[in-house]
Design a protein that fits this description.
With 71 residues, the protein is of the alpha+beta class. It has 2 helices and 4 strands.
């Protein structure tokens, strides 16, 4: 999943120290797998709530598409 997201956001600066952190001009997104269970967490911070909602929606759709294809 992390490699998939890395490709998905290849036009952004990213770091993969603890999951994947994607840097945007107006904020950031962090997607990281759990170390103890088959779950992932998505966190983000942006300048507006509308942008938070938009990025969370897009990221959830991307993750769900990937999971659907690989299960």
């Amino acid at each position: 999943m992390i490699e998939h997201l890395k490709r998905e956001y290849s036009d952004h600066e990213t770091s993969t120290k603890d999951g994947i952190k994607v840097h945007f001009e107006d904020g950031w997104l962090l997607v990281r797998p759990s170390n103890t269970s088959p779950k992932m967490s998505i966190r983000c911070e942006f300048d507006t709530q509308e942008r938070v909602d938009e990025v969370l929606r897009q990221t959830k759709e991307t993750v769900n598409r990937y999971v659907t294809r690989h299960t």
